[in-house]
Amino acid sequence: MPAKEGKLLTGLMVNNSMAGGKVEFVPQKGNRVCWYGCGPTVYDASHMGHARTYVTFDVIRRIMSDYLNYDVTMCMNITDIDDKIIKRSIEQGVDFLTLARHWEKEFFNDMAALNVRLPSVVTRVSEYIPEVLSLIERIVKNGYGYESQGSVYFDTQTFRKTDKHIYGRMEPSSVSDESRVLEGEGELGLTSSEKRHPCDFALWKKAKEGEPSWDSPWGKGRPGWHIECSAMADSILPFPLDIHSGGIDLRFPHHDNELAQSEAANDRPQWVNYFLHSGHLHIHGAKMSKSLKNFITIKECLSRFTARQIRLLCLMNRVSSQEPHLLLPEKPLTFTFSFAFVGVAVSVASLPPDARVHSATGPKEGWDSFMNYSPDGETMQQAIDVDRSFDNFFALVKAKLRDATPVSDYAQKWGADDFALNEQLQSAKEQASPLEELRNCDVVHKAILDNFSTPEALVALQHLMSATNSYLNQKTGEDVKAPLIKEVAKYIFHMLKIFGVVEDDEEDLAYVKAQGSTAAAAAEIEGLVECVGAFRELVRTSASQGMRAVNQALKRAPEKSPGESDASPIGAGEAEGELLQSLSVTMSTLLQACDEAELQAKKERERQVPPADYFRVLHADLYATFDEQGVPLTLKSGEPVSKTQRQKMLKQIEKHQKVHEQWLASRGQHA
């Protein structure tokens, strides 16, 4: 661990693979954090395993920079020279860099769709060949590498014999596993007869006919897989790195070999202070694998769920037999619109006192352990429910704030309920002992410092949200303390913004960022609520002045819907007998706008589904198996699809393809 003097110390504890457990995070210099993250090998579509890894580290990076105030420089590589890329380019008859650039672009498009921030620096292997050669020469010069038949290998046995280096530091049990070593050599790897020891690995691979190659002191060839990251990190970031990150499957041999190379080239120990490894992604309880046919691309997932729901799934990933997991109501939170003679009330059901806290037996899970994803399973439904609860909460708060402002019109002296709610807010924000009201869950700040425990942080935020819902539903507009409610909502929104769940400013509390027709519908509904609210206030004021004034107010009922006129929401000319009819029309308009917005959103989601996934995604409840074109082969009952049914399905896919192509064209893309 680096010395603590002169460093920004926040009390953050992280699970460090270099130490085999949680240790205090101490940066190498001041508040600066130099971070290298392993990027993708770009030869195919990005999948949910990528989403899990890069969303996870995006959350951690946001916490470190936006919450803990570290100055983070993050470098991420793009592996565009690799056996898989070369093999795929030969199969498809295209240049390897053309293939790599295509899938690199797709990868960054997927990351943008998931709201993952760009790294500070992007490095491509193809652009760092001179740096790769230089690093290999330093390794050979220091006695840790050797040339053999035009290739160069790392001498693991010489490295292991030194006093200042440890080979296989993070996974020593795998050091002598030749099968694991060969996995890291790639599909086009060389024979072990060229090596001094079976566990030595390639730094530079002699070129074979038809493969891309570059000149080197040892002849034509290309970089080995492991040397790429060491060379690019060495050229951008100082020695030692504060953080190196990647998926757990890279720990050995890739990351252990990176450590060995970098320490050998610099002839110094401890190249990385903190190694962070995200856990595997499991699909339906099994590790994702093409051979198991449970391979799910990011685009496929986004055709069914929002980026926010996927991020919430990653944030929620922790289960323990001892600790509460997710606070959810038994039923989804719903709006209740109640129109009455003198106005409109908008409310949201609060979480009941016995709201269930999910728990399960088994090992703890977190960002650094496996995550289970099942499109139709409980974990994804939990993410959807949590997303809905936050959405409803901010809508309720904004409605109540409209009722309780301007503050100059209402009494502001706090009562017992106000003090109790503020106590829960402060307990969530500060480093304090957990309250009994919070069921002994870790408060937000403490949870974050405990190895980025976002599940516990979300639990605390949900308890605070539940307490606020209860507060709001027990009070009328004049009893609500608007400044206090705004502070609570802004804090919850701020923390969701830290986690990357939302992006807008806290002042707006815009949990859902509407666009296009959806935004227009939302604006119409917002104006409608304001219109009826204004009318209600007019009747209230007039009532205090006697029935004559009330009758005058009734004659000034809304003349037009907010969308039909830019004039004041309170029109003129309607008689008392028409008032109820006017309110009925208002209710009908509101419901119609909601239905239309929901229908439009559903159609928009359907248009985004690729034709090959039409039946898999939109009719998954009807069919069990599919062919390569995405056409169903069997029904859920196991009954095979008839030839007649198949012909009809092909016509449906053809029809949907036109719709999908229109959607792509509207976004400036091509099928």
Strand-residue fraction?
A: 5-15%
Helix content: 40-55%
Structural category is alpha/beta
- What's the arrangement of strands in the largest beta sheet? 5-4-3-10-11
The assembly state of the depicted protein chains is single chain
CA-based gyration radius: 30 Å
Envelope shape: globular
The stretches of 5 or more residues where confidence is low (pLDDT under 50) are: 319-363, 431-441, 514-522, 557-587
Give the total of domains.
4
Characterize the structure shown.
Its EC number is 6.1.1.16. Its cofactor is Zn(2+). InterPro entries: Cys-tRNA-ligase, Cys-tRNA/MSH_ligase, Rossmann-like_a/b/a_fold, tRNA-synt_1_cat_dom, tRNAsynth_Ia_anticodon-bd. With 671 residues, this protein is α/β, with parallel strands linked by helices. The chain folds into four domains: 260 residues, 3-Layer(aba) Sandwich (Rossmann fold), CATH 3.40.50; 151 residues, no CATH class; 83 residues, no CATH class; 56 residues, no CATH class. 44% of the residues lie in helices and 13% in strands. The chain is built from 20 helices and 20 strands. The strands form seven sheets. The chain has a five-stranded parallel β-sheet with strand order 5-4-3-10-11, with helices on both faces. A four-stranded antiparallel β-sheet has the order 6-7-8-9. A hairpin with a 2-residue loop joins strand 12 and strand 13. Helix 10 crosses helix 11 and helix 16 packs antiparallel against helix 18. The longest helix has 30 residues. About 14% of the residues have low confidence.
